Q: What sequence folds into this?
């Protein structure tokens, strides 16, 4: 575990010494502040739209940070040859993969804390209340989603040579899951065979990041809290998928020449 | 003699990316033994298989057949690398870290206790003369300084075996002299050094034993004096062994 934490520490250090996060955070803050300062038609309900757009920006920014940060980890190590002195130490490739995953996941957790703290402050300035537990549930499930996305991107970075192609493919895959994943079973019913079977297979194989994890409505509409049992089940679901992707990444990386 | 590095009928083939091309054979049944306390020079022309051999020893490349071991442990086990230090030919370290942070990270991989890590970091930074720059980001270092950081990371765990892949490549005369001094110093401390080099004068000066490979095959191995034999220098012996014939000869 010591080696995994050591690698994770370096990944976190890299993220906060690079500019990606700061740029996206400042961009989100500026857009949201500009929107929050406008009061169209004196409509008091406008805050819901602002919250909705702000959360959408947070989701997009966090996915950009998670995918771009993860996609460059192993390819950059290979390209800059930092992988050679690293693997010449008593560090197994499995430890490296898990360390990279943990580092990216924890770093994204820190990013989410910043984003949600800003969101909470913005919403509280207009609504004068702060539903902390709702924010916690939404941020926690958001973080779990990023865990699956990071594991998927890490696997992609070992399969696709260029980080840019991996990032693009992961973005498209995650966007497709979030936007149309939930409708695949309904679409399958309207299609003849073999398309129906193919759509069913995809529906059951992909990680469903949309329904159980996207809790934006919970805080936009101030819905009551979700049962903690369901939060726990969601967490297990995401960890299971992340584990499958990480094991696949370890198997791909195990015999890969790194010279 | 205590053999700490051994390869046994090591064969490495790289699959061709071209359609219907036969695989490229990088090593053809290489048998090598390095004894504890030796400074061992590993020589050969470009493309002879030196770096491939080192890559197999460090677990970067899987052999097609044969085996390799360090301290009697199969090189595929990460624990085989616990007592070695490695300096690649050309490398770049994490540029967003300082030299001290980089060394602390590697010390942690070797599971060095905090106090021991602090002591080793001080010692190796002093040895490579980077004490004054220890808090600077590596991206601000010159090439020579980066090479010295490389040497420092290779020595952080006080290794019993040091594997150096062309350590003086691209260094100025002062840098080369420094590396040579460090190798000599390690030799007096009883450490084993295995290094590949094209600097035959340097090899002649510091090595106890040398091996010469060409086209993936071991051509000669033995003490420097034995390899030189009737030749005036190691360079002449090397050219003779690899079968070089001068174009300007009548």
A:
């Amino acid at each position: 575990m010591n080696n995994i934490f050591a690698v994770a520490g370096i990944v976190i250090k890299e993220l906060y010494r690079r500019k990606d996060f700061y740029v996206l955070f400042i961009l989100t803050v500026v857009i949201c502040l500009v929107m929050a300062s406008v009061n169209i038609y004196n409509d008091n309900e406008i805050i819901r739209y602002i919250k909705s757009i702000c959360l959408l920006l947070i989701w997009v920014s966090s996915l950009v940070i998670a995918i771009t940060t993860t996609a460059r980890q192993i390819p950059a190590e290979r390209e800059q040859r930092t992988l050679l002195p690293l693997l010449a130490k008593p560090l197994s490739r499995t430890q490296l993969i898990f360390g990279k995953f943990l580092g990216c996941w924890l770093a994204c957790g820190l990013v989410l804390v910043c984003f949600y703290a800003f969101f909470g402050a913005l919403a509280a300035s207009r609504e004068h209340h702060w539903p902390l537990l709702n924010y916690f549930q939404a941020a926690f499930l958001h973080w779990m989603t990023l865990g699956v996305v990071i594991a998927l991107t890490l696997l992609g970075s070992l399969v696709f040579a260029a980080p840019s192609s991996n990032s693009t493919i992961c973005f498209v895959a995650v966007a497709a899951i979030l936007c149309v994943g939930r409708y695949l079973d309904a679409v399958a019913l309207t299609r003849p065979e073999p398309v129906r079977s193919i759509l069913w297979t995809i529906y059951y194989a992909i990680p469903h990041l949309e329904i159980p994890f996207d809790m934006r409505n919970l805080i936009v509409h101030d819905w009551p809290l979700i049962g903690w049992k369901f939060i726990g089940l969601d967490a297990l679901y995401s960890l299971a998928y992340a584990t499958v992707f990480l094991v696949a990444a370890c198997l791909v990386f195990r015999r890969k020449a790194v010279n | 003699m205590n053999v700490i590095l051994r390869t046994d009928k090591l064969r490495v083939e790289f699959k061709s990316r071209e359609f219907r091309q036969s695989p490229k054979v990088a090593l053809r049944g290489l048998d090598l033994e390095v004894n504890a306390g030796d400074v061992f020079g590993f020589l050969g022309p470009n493309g002879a298989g030196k770096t491939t051999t080192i890559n197999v020893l460090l677990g970067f490349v899987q052999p097609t057949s044969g085996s390799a071991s360090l301290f009697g442990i199969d090189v595929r086990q990460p624990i085989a690398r616990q007592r070695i230090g490695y300096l690649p030919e050309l490398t770049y370290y994490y540029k967003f870290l300082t030299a001290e942070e980089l060394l602390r990270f590697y010390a942690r991989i070797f599971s060095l206790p905090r106090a021991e890590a602090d002591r080793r970091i001080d010692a190796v930074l002093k040895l490579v003369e980077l004490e004054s720059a220890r808090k600077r980001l590596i991206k601000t270092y010159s090439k020579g300084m980066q090479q010295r950081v490389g040497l420092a990371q290779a020595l952080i765990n006080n290794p019993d075996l040091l594997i150096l892949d062309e350590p003086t490549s691209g260094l100025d005369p002062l840098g080369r002299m420094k590396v040579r001094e460090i190798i000599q110093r390690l030799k007096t401390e009883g450490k084993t050094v295995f290094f590949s080099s094209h600097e035959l004068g340097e090899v002649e000066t510091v090595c106890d034993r040398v091996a010469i490979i060409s086209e993936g095959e071991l051509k000669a191995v033995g003490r420097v004096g034995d390899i030189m034999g009737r030749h005036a220098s190691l360079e002449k012996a090397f050219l003779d062994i690899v079968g070089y014939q001068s174009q300007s000869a009548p």
